[in-house]
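Reader question, answered in our methods column.
A reader sent in the components of a multi-part assembly and asked whether the whole thing could be modeled at once rather than chain by chain. We filled in our standard form and ran it. Here is what they sent:
COMPLEX SIZE: two components
ENTRIES:
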Amino acid sequence: MQPADEILIERSKNGDMEAFEQLVRRYENKVYTVAYRFLGNHADASDLAQDTFLRLYHALPGFRGESSFMTWLYRITANACRDEIRRQQRYHVVSLDNETANSGDHFMSRVSGMIPSPEEVVERKEFNNMIQQCINGLSDEHRLILVMREVQGLSYEEIADILKCSLGTVKSRLSRARQAFKEKFNGQRELFGKDSRLAK
Amino acid sequence: MQCLKIEELLSPYLDEVLSPPVREDVASHLAVCTNCREKFEALSEVVNCLKDLPEIAPPPEFSALVIAKVAADKNTGKAAIFKNFNRSNWARAFSLAAAFVLTLGVTALMYGMPGQWKSTPPVIVHREGTITDVQNDNDEHADTSVLEYIPLEELKLPGDGSSQGSSYSGTGVTVGNPEPASSIPGNGIPAPAGVPIASQKMAQKEGTIFQQVAYGQVPAASKESRNVVRSATLALSTEDPSVVPEKIADLADDNGGYLVPVDPENGTLAVKVPADRFKNVLSGIREIGDADTRRIEGKDVSEELYCYEDTLRELANEEQKLLIAMNSAKSPVESQAAQERLAKVQKDMERQKKLHSKLLNDTQLATIKINLR
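And here is the structure of the entire assembly that came back:
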């Protein structure tokens, strides 16, 4: 039987790296998915997810169990994403992978086509890639709030707290972000192929 | 309510965060307005698409990378003490060291160095009482330290001399009467005359244990040259990107490296090549197509490597003490306690070795990331 989060957290607080590694393995998919959805490529997502767990390690002594561990970890992840935007803005970082992802539609389709796998699996994969490209094409602000809400499932209050803005701002920003995503999605859906079952 | 106003409220309505009266207004509007209802359904659809996106698993080595990062961060914390040393601090430290050396030099000139006039300089092995106490309560030397003189050349064991010196200080046992022996069986090292055989055995045992655990699987980092992790990122445009992975794999192979499939679906490749072939491979990649170098980086990780090695040395010392304590424990409780501590120390050592080995490996293999366009 796997030890409970609380036990692993306590042991990690006391410097037990094995317990911390177990905690990482337990939540790595969640954190990595958020990082990937936010940044759109594996190399940067891996860096951001690692950074998130490093933050978690430093923050563990301050965790008192007032909220669930998952919620708390998601807040750390969202903060890491927010700080990543600030860092990129400060240094004008241009993500090479994003450029590739945005401009490499044809290449991506070709590569996906080369993988010998059932048609439906490939189609679903391409469809998900298309959605990811739509997310990548949004502004930092919209991408962040969309990932926080749709991928992480954070409440409006939690988003307002992390972004340090009012509930009204969250409502309007999320509404605009969804609208922007919808426009990109509709545009891409036409390119994706009218005969695709998933695009309908 | 007008359609324009309703449209703004569709998103919070979907999330059920509107106040009850506003929510009712929107609901009643949607019941009668086909246009707004279609927009709401379209919005629900795209939001569901986002929510339905699958979870993505990181690479298998992800958790190990996180642990490595945490450990490196801890070590950097230790090294920060030195990094924070500013110029005046260093100047002060240097002056102090210079003054000490000068004083030592003058003293040596006036009085000579200790043992200067002897043909064989002795090494004092300070044998503390802790383990002796465990061994024999009735020992008349139990509460006292015993000094023994062992000629320097006779104390030498195979391996790194400098590390042995540190491993011997402060550890050891009080020994019984000397036994006549010409050599120690099984190791081929001649027994020094005048040194008790039990002492030699213990010294060799300790030395062997120390070398195996600290250095058995872990080559030390180079102290003469810097240990640099090299990496580069290129954007590569070619007419036919589908043939590029194979070309790059061949290039890496020719240079003793290999291709790492980072994210081929999004056109990202990476190669690991021996550090000394880094420039050659970069040039080779540039010949494949129109390459735009985005980043070339060299990160000096010498301090981190030395930190790992220091930690390993400390752990090896502790392990050797625990092994002796465990063998000479006078009660099962003591033995159990030592055993538990030993298991933890050994686990820590394994982890440190892995991290050290990975970092050292990184210095030997440079990474080149290629984004295909």
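What stands out: Chain A has two domains: 1-95, 104-200. Residues 94-116 of chain A have pLDDT under 50 and may be disordered.
Send us your own complexes using the same form.
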